[in-house]
Amino acid sequence: MFFDTHCHIDFAELGDPQMTIQQAMDAEVHRLLLPATTQKSWANVTSIVSRFPSVYGALGLHPYFLSPDMAMTSSLSQLDDALKQRSRRIVAVGECGLDAMIDIDFQQQVTVFTEHIRLAQHYHLPLVIHSRKTHHHILSLLKNAQFDEGGVVHGFTGSEQQARQLIERGLKIGVGGSITYSRAQKTRRTIASLPLESLVLETDAPDMPIAGFQGKSNHPERLPLIFQCLLELRSETPDELKSQLWHNSCDVFQLPDTAR
Ligand SMILES: [Zn+2]
Which CDD domains does the UniProt entry name for this protein (predicted)? Predict the structure, then answer.
């Protein structure tokens, strides 16, 4: 069984979540983690996780969707309220993080992410982290906060040294569609060399298209294709790899490791 640890099945381009989930189940993807992106999306995320037992959620503010005129203080205090009142199916804080490749004030991103770290620490929840060209910033903010609740750095691309520092901070490395591209040599080498206990799989659907599906929306049902690529990069047997990835995913979100 597979666990898609990062997919936005609430996005309109994926259509009816029920259909997406059914197609995923048919492809052996039996659990999914749906991270919110904006304050507006929290209600829908909460509703989806309450309707579908295979889906778990995270609440947060994605750096992409921050804006200079947003009521930041009020959004963050409402995030605090939403987490305080969360259902048991909300198992993480995110999607949150930093992105050096977008035109959003970096200081604002840091302020918002720092508050996510504080809330995750306070509610003893792991973080679902977005990081583009910002691994060192993420690391120093987590270190300053003495953050120790774990989490996933999703859609990881980068060097082995960066990955190992994140793992030492207690984070897992989200392995997505980028490893399906032969040109992603550095990331493929990194993922091949990391301890298996540190890896989890994700599609980031509808984003991060898998090789062969460029220009199309990505879907959780394609997670096994990422698994196949990972299998080629690693030395473990298919069963070893599959069961350890499942275990790692349940572990990071503190879910029972049952129903294999
Ligand atoms: Zn995402």
Answer: TatD_DNAse
Largest CA distance in the chain: 51
**Shortest CA distance to 33 belongs to which of 164, 141, 129, 138?**
129
Percentage of residues in the chain having pLDDT higher than 70: 99
CA of 8 to the centre of ligand 1 (A): 6
Sign of CA dihedral 97, 98, 103, 105: positive
Domain-embedded: residue 260: no
Neighbouring residues of the ion ligand 1, judged by CB less than 5 Å: 95
Instruction: Calculate helix-pair angle for 185-193, 223-233, nearest 10 degrees.
Output: 70
Residue 215 domain-assigned (yes or no)? yes
pLDDT tens sequence across 172-203: 999 999 999 999 999 999 999 999 999 999 99
| Spacing, Cα 178 to ligand 1 middle (Å) | 14
- Split into its structural domains, the chain has a count of 1
Indicate which CATH number applies to the domain containing 235: 3.20.20.140
Whether residue 257 lies inside any domain: the answer is no
**99 occurs within a structural domain:** yes
Q: Which domain holds residue 234?
A: 2-252
CA pair distance 260, 99, nearest whole angstrom = 35
Higher-pLDDT residue of 18 and 68 is 18
